[in-house]
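Re: the 231-residue chain
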Amino acid sequence: MPGEPDPAAGRARWRLDQRRLYLCTPDRPDLERFVAACIGGGVDVVQLREKHLPDRELVRRASLVARVCNDAGVPFVLNDRPDLAVVCGADGVHVGQDDTPPHEARLLVGDDLLVGRSTHAPDELERALGEPVDYVSAGPVVPTPTKPGRPGTGAGYAGWATGRAPCTVWVTGGVAPETVGHLAAAGARHFVVVRWLTEAGDPGAAARALRGAIDAAVSAAAGDGAAAGAG
């Protein structure tokens, strides 16, 4: 009703539609320095995905990342644990198909935090569009060791999901400077990176190279689309 507060207004401040490069990282000894270097190179969303730490240690490590991200004005998302997201100062939680359902996650984190949802096929995306999520991921485009046993979806699903969903769609799987042109041409505009940065000797330089490739690829794809429309 007019005059009532919008429960999504707090989440909207992050303007996910204007962000391009989403880092998903496990815990690591140099976690704070690594995340800061990646942000300095152009990462503008960060997720900590760590399945093996005890709760107390996970909260401690996640809180470190939350502080780095808060100082940089970048949203921090905790994977899988809506029950701990508020405790560690996260800005959101990301849940997979086998994790806490988005409706339950929203009840746990409240209205102010982001909720993201993994999708790997059209039926999963269609279900996600009826769930209280702020964004979805689509992929992995190619098989990846971070998701053992899961087949690649191909770039077609990522492009279709981007066109179908009213929310931001983050494309996952094999994101690197040499692949983003193909993905952008298929319709992708927002990209999740894992190994290109987590395995980099110089993560800041690697992030700059990837962000530059993404910005160029998205600009080129948008220009091609405008030219086609004009034609």
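DSSP finds ten helices and eight strands in the chain.
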